[in-house]
Amino acid sequence: MALPVAAAALAAAVAGVLVTTSAGAATSLPTPATTSPSSSELNKRLVTAYAGDDIAGETSSQTSLSASTGSKAGSSSSSASVDPKIIGGTTTTVAAAPWMAQLWYGDDRGTTTETDDIGFFCGGAVVSPTKILTAAHCVKGYNWKAHGVVITGTAQLLSVDADGNADLHGGTATGIWRQWNHPSYSATTIDNDLAVLTLPNPVKATPIQLTTAGDTASYKAGTTAKVFGWGRTTSTTQDISDTLKTADLPIQSNATCTGFSSSFIAGHMVCAGDPATGSDAGTTSACNGDSGGPLVVGGKIVGVVSWGVKDCVKAGAYSVFTKVTTYVGAASPRIDDTNLSGDHNADLFVRNSSTKTGYELDSKGTTLAARESWGSFSAWNLVLQTDLNRDGYQDFILRRTSDGDVYWRHYVPSSGTWTSNLIGDNWKSRLSIVAPGDVTGDALPDLLSVDSAGVLWIYPGKGAGTFGTRVKVGTGWNQYNFVRGHGDFTNDGRADLLARNKSTGAVYLFKGTGKAGTGAFAARVKVATWSTATYNAFDTVGDVNGDGKADLLARTPAGTLYLYKGTGKSTSEIFATRVSLGTSFKQYDLFG
Predict the structure, then answer these.
(1) 3-state DSSP call for residue 256?
(2) Beta strands 178-181 and 224-229: pairing type?
(3) Cβ–Cβ < 8 Å for 205, 341
């Protein structure tokens, strides 16, 4: 019943195993809908971006307003602007900050003249192999898929030679697959200034974690934080730094930050640094070009460079950052976003009970698109949608009916093929298998199961479809006839579980704590009472309507499928009023 050890013989035996039908024929699975720009296209974008002198949020395609006066950010009348850079910092290396990313946006507007080109630079941080955390003012209003490039793996800024060739200085360039910014981002107040870019292929850069929800220690006044970036190093020129810089900034209290600027929004923003002196001398501050870069405490991102005063050194000024602990609940679903269609709505996988054909049903928010066939899934009695290696592509966990073996089925971008690896040997008697995401708080997706004795186990994920030694959570889980979870129901950035008592129909929320073992979940909270006569199938695939909160799908015995949109609460109001997704779902016996 234990997970197989990573022995060479076993690895050789399961490497490249194909998902097969009961007849033994290989099932041909669709290729994820993503493309990577050619090297020439990436070079074109980089050259355009490098030549540009625009500021993110202040271009003809997206005008930002200052937080205080309503005038254009960066104008002489603004007391706040979408501006930040590192003045007074020191040079650092990619070894010290392997997660740093350069974000270049180059749009030649499709014309023969360069006068209307848009080119600017922002910073960012790799938070999973295909995810870049940055500022919303760097993303909102721009088409990063069509015009953006991300460079990782180098501390030296991009340069362009006389022949128009971009020199990455040992870094790696990649395009962007999709973009997300906080839906409540305001260009007027620069509030909710957070965004995530998804790359079409994983990068080798070591990711950095976001701080956790409820983190207060990192924001205590006087705590030393580090800011990183390639932004301006002086207030007297617009030139950004050729090498990565860092600086230590003390966290300031909300009272101090509010006293500095009425544009400061406590709870949504944090300011840091000693008050600027009025000149470069004696000032240490973020500045233009650092936008979107990370503020780090204890090895985790606590802030994202957001805004500051014009030229960064006005006497008494501080650098202002998006307060990440407030937004980790909204960002986490985007970091774990691996839906089938490539947008930001979690999609549904189902299997027809008669034909055993698997289908993809893409979410349109509160409706589902026409189904797309994935071929025969007759060999399996369990299908779960997940992303065990955090590469941005939807994976599947499949249990074979004949022997109970459990496989991780995943897409390999480098070869454009699907492959399978054995992850559980003879799990036929497992009452539940769940892939909720990161339960243990290490930013790596985990696997849970309930054995025949009712014991709930966590298998800590290692990020590549393999797991550490299982950890016992508790007993008595055989009282539940469904245990499901995928993502964060309570908007705190931690994976949760839902379970229904098979006798009473009571549905309980088990709120994740970010720990392993007996403390992995808080005491259960009753959120509904749904007997089998009310619903006989449930599914949790993540954020179906794209609002940043995990949702629940429930089917009636007659075949109506309902969407319960998550509210982010951890009470009986955990879900909004149900929305019907259709009445033809009685035909399906497996839900992903």
Answers:
(1) helix
(2) unpaired
(3) no
Sequence-distant (6+) residues with CB within 8 A of 331 are 133, 194, 196, 210, 324, 493, 548
**Whether residue 76 lies in the annotated active site:** no
Q: Which of 218, 291, 319, 449 is catalytic?
A: 291
Looking at residue 341, the DSSP 8-state letter turns out to be S
Please say whether the beta carbons of 337 and 344 come within 8 A: yes
Q: Is the pTM of this model over 0.70?
A: yes
As a whole number, the mean pLDDT across the chain is: 86
**Residue from 193, 347, 488, 543 carrying the catalytic annotation:** 193
Instruction: Based on DSSP, count helices (H) and strands (E) in the chain, helices before strands.
Output: 5, 39
Q: What is the pLDDT of residue 313?
A: 60
Provide the b/e sequence for 91-128 (b: ≥16 CB within 10 Å). Answer: ebebeebbbbbbbbbbbbeeeeeeeebbbbbbbbbbbb
Measured distance CA(509)–CA(550) in Å, rounded: 12
Q: Tell me, yes or no, if 117 is annotated catalytic.
A: no
pLDDT in tens, 370-399: 999 999 999 999 999 999 988 888 899 999
Residues 536 and 580 sit within 8 Å (Cβ to Cβ): no
pLDDT bucket at 539, cuts 50 / 70 / 90: very high
* Tokens 């299982």 -> residue: 470
DSSP state of 363: B
d(CA 447, CA 458): 6
The pLDDT score that the predictor gives to residue 97 is 96
Helix ranges (DSSP H) in 385-525: none
Flag the least confident range among 7-16, 284-293, 516-525: 7-16
Q: Tokens standing for 282?
A: 């004696």
**249 pairs with which residues across the strands?**
225
Rounded mean pLDDT, 96-120: 93
